[in-house]
Write a structure and sequence with these properties.
It contains 5 helices and 10 strands; from the N terminus they run βββαβαβαβαβββαβ. It is of the alpha+beta class.
C-alpha cells in the first residue's frame, strides 16, 4: 500500500472547471451543477484503495450532514481503468450504491481534471468557498488503515465549520495520505 501525500494546491486557487459523467445518474455534470451555495468539497477517490475504503462511511455521514448546510459534495475517480479495472465506471456506480453516496461520483477518463487539481492520492480533499476559492486542502483526519485512530473527519469538518461561521481557516493543513492516483502511461 503506497503512502502518497497530497500535493497541496496553493490556497486561494480558483476551482478548475470540469464536465464529467456521473456514474450514478449517467448525467454529465459540471462544477456549477455540484457547487454548494456556501461551499464545495471536491474529493478524489476510487473503489479499490484501502485508504478510501477506510473512510467511506464517514464521507457519507459527513456529506449528508453538510449538504443540509448548503455545502456541495462531489467525488471524482481518475484512475487508469485499463490497469485497474476494479475502478471502471460500472463498478463505480455499484460501489456508490453499496456505500450510499449522497453525492455524484464522476469519472475522469482523460485524467485532465485530476491534473488540473494537482491531485496526487486517493483520498484527496479540496474545500472551496462560495466564490470557488480554495480554502482547505488536505486530510480528512489523522486516521489511516491500521493506526487505531477513529475516523471522525475532524480536519475537514473543522474547515467546513470555520467556513460556515466565517472564521479564518487554520494555517496548518496536513496533507492527505493515500494510494497514488493510477496515471495512464503515455
Amino acid at each position: 500500500m503506497a503512502r502518497t501525500p497530497s500535493n497541496m494546491l496553493p490556497l486561494g486557487t480558483k476551482a478548475p472547471s470540469f464536465k464529467l459523467t456521473d456514474t450514478i445518474s449517467d448525467a454529465t455534470l459540471g462544477l456549477a451543477d455540484v457547487k454548494g451555495e456556501k461551499g464545495t468539497v471536491v474529493m478524489f477517490i476510487c473503489n479499490h484503495c484501502p485508504f478510501v475504503k477506510h473512510v467511506n462511511h464517514q464521507l457519507v455521514v459527513m456529506a449528508r450532514e453538510y449538504m443540509e448546510k448548503d455545502i456541495g459534495f462531489v467525488a471524482i475517480s481518475s484512475n487508469d481503468v485499463e490497469n485497474y479495472p476494479q475502478d471502471a465506471p460500472d463498478l463505480m456506480k455499484e460501489n456508490a450504491r453499496e456505500e450510499g453516496y449522497p453525492f455524484p461520483y464522476l469519472y475522469d477518463a482523460t485524467q485532465t481534471v485530476a491534473r488540473a487539481y494537482d491531485a496526487a492520492c486517493t483520498p484527496d480533499f479540496y474545500l472551496f468557498d462560495n466564490q470557488l476559492n480554495l480554502i482547505y486542502r488536505g486530510q480528512l483526519d489523522d486516521s489511516r488503515p491500521g493506526n487505531g485512530i477513529a475516523v471522525t473527519g475532524k480536519d475537514l469538518r473543522m474547515a467546513m465549520d470555520k467556513l460556515l461561521s466565517g472564521e479564518p481557516q487554520a494555517e496548518d493543513q496536513k496533507p492527505s495520505i493515500g494510494c497514488n492516483i493510477k496515471w495512464k502511461e503515455h
